[in-house]
């Protein structure tokens, strides 16, 4: 589990999470006293499919993969979430078991809020509901694109896409990934990943793959990835922001903006 350093985020400008940063001060303050900053350790499980959701996580950095677990033990990733969004955000609607397993694949930090406190603030704040609605819309797009990608695009292009998504989260070309984790993300056998790695190394798109680290050549890997990489990147990078009109509709004075 992630561990807490108990340092609270005190205002919207003090967080790098896009969802929290988009909130007007009064709405952020509904959450502020319940926020803990926690470390997201590599391979930590933030939510497990079927388990009750205890916390909502709003990452400041790092990358979390949403995984579907099949009855035969196979897994596949359906989306990644980083600083633009939240993990277990649907618990705002009401208590329910998690539909997916959320695993940290690039370590980082996050704001953690008890789900019942997040739900309470969600019910009281139109701005929080608006920000979450924007995030849900972006996630639905990511899920739909992912479904199309899995059905239509070759696994080598999908692997390149996932590596580039994770590269976007880390900001550098050495990714803390094993072939085993890649096989779980892609829903393919480990031997398939080994073969794909071999091909990508031969083309120069992968520079090295050893000791749990994969070094990529970003431009060469981009040439291998399917178009979904670019489309999903735009979705993930789209900031959640309330326009001036929306601020006014939410009942704020212009001075508060
Ligand atoms: Zn694709």
What would the keywords be for this entry?
disordered C terminus, 4-stranded antiparallel sheet, 257 residues, 10 helices, 3-stranded antiparallel sheet, binds zinc ion, Jelly Rolls, elongated
Written overview of the protein:
The chain is α+β, with helices and mostly antiparallel strands and 257 residues long. The chain folds into two domains: 12-149, Jelly Rolls (Sandwich); 154-225, Arc Repressor Mutant, subunit A, CATH 1.10.10.10. It is 43% helix and 20% strand. It has helices spanning 18-21, 25-32, 115-124, 126-152, 155-170, 179-186, 190-203, 218-224, 228-237, 244-249, and strands at 36-40, 45-47, 55-59, 63-69, 75-81, 101-106, 108-114, 174-175, 206-210, 213-216. It has a four-stranded antiparallel sheet with strand order 2-6-4-5. Helix 3 (115-124) crosses helix 4, helix 5 runs antiparallel to helix 8 and helix 6 (179-186) crosses helix 7 (190-203). The longest helix has 27 residues, at 126-152. The two termini are 37 Å apart. Residues 149, 153, 157-158, 161, 226, 228 line the site of zinc ion. The site of zinc ion (ZN) has 7 residues, from helix 5.
Radius of gyration: 19 Å
Shape: elongated
Distance between the termini: 37 Å
Helix coverage percent: 40-55%
Proper CATH architecture of the largest domain = Sandwich
In terms of quaternary structure, the protein is: single chain
> How many domains?
2
What's the CATH superfamily of the largest domain, by name? Answer: Jelly Rolls
Average per-residue pLDDT, rounded, comes to 87
- Number of helices, counting only DSSP H or I runs of 4 residues or more: 10
CATH fold naming of the largest domain: Jelly Rolls
Spans of 5+ residues with little confidence (pLDDT < 50)?
A: 5-10, 252-257
Q: Biggest β-sheet: count, sense, barrel?
A: 4 strands, antiparallel
Identify the bound ligands.
Answer: zinc ion
Strand order of the largest sheet: 2-6-4-5
Name the structural class.
Answer: alpha+beta
Tell me what portion of residues adopts beta-strand conformation.
15-25%
Beta-strand segment tally = 10
């Amino acid at each position: 589990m992630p561990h807490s350093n108990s340092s609270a985020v005190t205002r919207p400008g003090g967080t790098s999470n896009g969802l929290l940063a988009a909130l007007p001060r009064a709405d952020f303050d509904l959450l502020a006293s319940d926020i803990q900053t926690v470390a997201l350790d590599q391979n930590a499980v933030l939510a497990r499919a079927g388990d009750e959701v205890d916390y909502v996580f709003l990452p400041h950095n790092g990358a979390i993969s949403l995984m579907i677990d099949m009855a035969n033990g196979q897994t596949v990733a359906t989306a990644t979430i980083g600083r633009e969004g939240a993990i277990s955000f649907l618990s705002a609607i009401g208590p329910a078991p998690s539909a997916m397993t959320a695993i940290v694949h690039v370590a980082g930090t996050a704001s953690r809020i008890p789900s019942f406190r997040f739900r309470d603030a969600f019910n009281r704040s139109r701005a929080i509901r608006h920000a979450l609605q924007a995030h849900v819309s972006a996630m639905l797009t990511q899920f739909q694109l992912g479904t199309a990608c899995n059905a239509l695009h070759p696994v080598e292009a999908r692997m390149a896409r996932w590596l580039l998504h994770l590269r976007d989260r880390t900001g550098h070309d050495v990714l803390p990934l094993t072939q085993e984790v890649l096989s779980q993300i892609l829903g393919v056998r480990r031997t398939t990943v080994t073969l794909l790695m071999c091909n990508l190394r031969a083309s120069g798109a992968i520079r090295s793959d050893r000791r749990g680290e994969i070094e990529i050549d970003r431009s060469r890997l981009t040439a291998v990835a399917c178009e979904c990489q670019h489309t999903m990147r735009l979705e993930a990078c789209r900031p959640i922001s309330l326009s001036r009109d929306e601020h006014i509709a939410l009942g704020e004075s212009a001075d508060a903006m």
